[in-house]
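Lab notebook, design round three. We kept the backbone fixed and only want residue identities now. Task for the bench partner: fill in a sequence for the structure below.
Input structure tokens:
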């Protein structure tokens, strides 16, 4: 089976629970550490799927790897190689597919409810789930690309996820682990302090409250999303 390519854009935002999911099912994957200078491939044909993780940068920044990543996503969609995006990764997918990415009205940091849209695509990806508590850490948002369908949203950010055939782009995070949460709290302490005026930014104490139970619930949703996504992998 072809490996899944996982693109890491900053060291603190690795695959987290997604890697655990793949390992438990013996699905091969390869980390492409863009943050360490790894080149973005020109062609998706060597991979069963492409996964883009998060990062503190903007897809509108003038970084050398962004244009190649956008080209790769577009080619993967044409070739029907499944693409999955988490936060920045979802924004990369949105921009590659013709949508816009810009500042969200408020910054979202911490746990927050997201609602599942009504419709066949949302039901295909999430079954009977109507809402769940996701993790958030973003200041920008994406619009929905032509032909795609919104499947998640909330009061602070209308578009939390969209799908286009086998491709899934998320603004929220479902890949969180306890290690990731604590790592982000350490590296993002100043950002939280500077953003405390936002009604959608939580304190570290709020974020870590009942953390294991929250993560367990989040992973149940992630399992469903990842199951549907991996079902479309190129073998």
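Proposed sequence:
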């Amino acid at each position: 089976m072809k490996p899944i390519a996982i693109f890491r854009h900053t060291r603190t935002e690795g695959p987290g629970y997604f890697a655990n999911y793949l390992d438990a099912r013996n699905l091969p994957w390869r980390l492409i550490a863009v943050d360490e200078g790894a080149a973005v491939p020109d062609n998706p044909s060597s991979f069963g799927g492409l996964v883009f993780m998060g990062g503190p940068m903007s897809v509108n920044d003038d970084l050398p790897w962004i244009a190649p990543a956008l080209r790769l996503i577009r080619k993967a969609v044409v070739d029907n190689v499944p693409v999955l995006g988490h936060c920045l990764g979802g924004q990369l997918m949105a921009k590659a597919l013709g949508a816009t990415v810009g500042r969200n009205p408020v910054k979202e940091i911490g746990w927050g409810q997201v609602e599942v849209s009504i419709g066949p695509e949302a039901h295909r990806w999430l079954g009977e789930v109507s809402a769940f508590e996701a993790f958030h850490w973003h200041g920008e948002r994406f619009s929905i690309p032509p032909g795609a369908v919104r499947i998640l949203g909330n009061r602070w950010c209308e578009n939390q996820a969209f799908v286009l055939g086998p491709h899934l782009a998320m603004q929220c995070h479902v890949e969180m682990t306890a290690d990731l949460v604590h790592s982000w709290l350490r590296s993002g302490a100043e950002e939280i302090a500077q953003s405390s005026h936002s009604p959608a930014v939580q304190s570290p104490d709020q974020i870590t409250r009942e953390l294991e139970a929250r993560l367990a619930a989040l992973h149940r949703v992630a399992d469903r999303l990842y199951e549907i996504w991996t079902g479309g992998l190129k073998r």
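Keep this in mind before ordering anything: The mean pLDDT is 97.
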